[in-house]
From TrEMBL:
Pathway: Cofactor biosynthesis; NAD(+) biosynthesis; deamido-NAD(+) from nicotinate D-ribonucleotide: step 1/1. It comes from Rhodococcus spelaei. InterPro entries: Cyt_trans-like, NadD/NMNAT, Rossmann-like_a/b/a_fold. This is Probable nicotinate-nucleotide adenylyltransferase. Gene3D superfamilies: HUPs (3.40.50.620). Its EC number is 2.7.7.18. HAMAP family: NaMN_adenylyltr. GO terms for biological process: NAD+ biosynthetic process. Residues 1-167 form the Cytidyltransferase-like domain.
Length: 203
């Protein structure tokens, strides 16, 4: 599951847990982005902070892990690079890429999306405020195996990192939206302070 994770929140964790259960996955690997090109121009917290928050949030679950492939990459991150690296590290694994309904809407703007389907099966999860559909992808899915893309309804959590950043910047609580350790990490590292206004409008 790729993401900016700025910060990671319970919407991400529930999505991962639900898909893991539904597909009987051995492991869910969270992959924080390095420099997210689709958010270029927008201020994003340092990759190391986002990586550490993701580690803190997932540490207690033996079925969750975090990969540094994108954080350590020199150039901008594309999902296809992530999947190539994960494929190289796990040559025998069946890979699934978990993505929320909003990210699925933009799949056609992803680089090398045809190769994406060869590298992994895709799982689109529901997200409040976004339509979970494949109509816009139908012509590209023709000829793909039936399980190339599966849509999964998950418990609706109307949480976004953007809203968490906004709350933190206004000294409003993010308790229960993100794991406790992440609340404490945000405060310890002074992330999302009011002056960082440009960080508030994520996409
Ligand atoms: P931002 O507001 O900064 O864009 P975000 O909450 O959308 O943050 P991302 O890191 O951009 O989080 O998302 C990573 C992945 O998790 C994406 O595929 C996104 O669609 C999915 N996702 C994020 N929040 C939810 C949620 N509440 N329910 C389901 N999927 C989600
Ligand atoms: Mg997002």
């Amino acid at each position: 599951m790729g993401g900016t994770f700025d910060p990671i929140h319970h919407g991400h964790l529930v999505a991962a847990s639900e898909v893991s259960d539904r597909f009987g996955l051995d492991e869910v690997i969270f992959v924080p982005t390095g420099q997210p090109w689709q958010k270029a121009g927008k201020e994003v917290s340092p990759a190391e902070d986002r990586y550490l928050m993701t580690v803190i949030a997932t540490a207690s679950n033996p079925g969750f892990s975090v990969s540094r492939v994108d954080v350590d990459r020199e150039k901008a991150t594309y999902t296809v690079d992530t999947l190539r690296d994960l494929r190289a590290q796990n040559p025998d694994a069946d890979l699934y890429f978990i993505t929320g309904a909003d990210a699925l809407e933009t799949i056609l703007s992803w680089q090398d999306w045809e190769e994406l389907f060869r590298l992994a099966k895709f799982v689109g999860v529901s997200r409040p405020g976004f339509e979970l559909g494949i109509e816009h992808l139908a012509e590209h899915l023709t000829g793909q195996p039936k399980d190339a893309l599966t849509l999964v309804e998950i418990p609706a959590l109307a949480i976004s990192s953007t809203e968490c950043r906004r709350r933190a910047s206004e000294n409003r609580p993010v308790w229960y939206l993100v794991p406790d350790g992440v609340v404490q990490y945000i405060s310890k590292r002074n992330l999302y302070r009011p002056l960082d206004a440009e960080r508030l409008d994520g996409a």
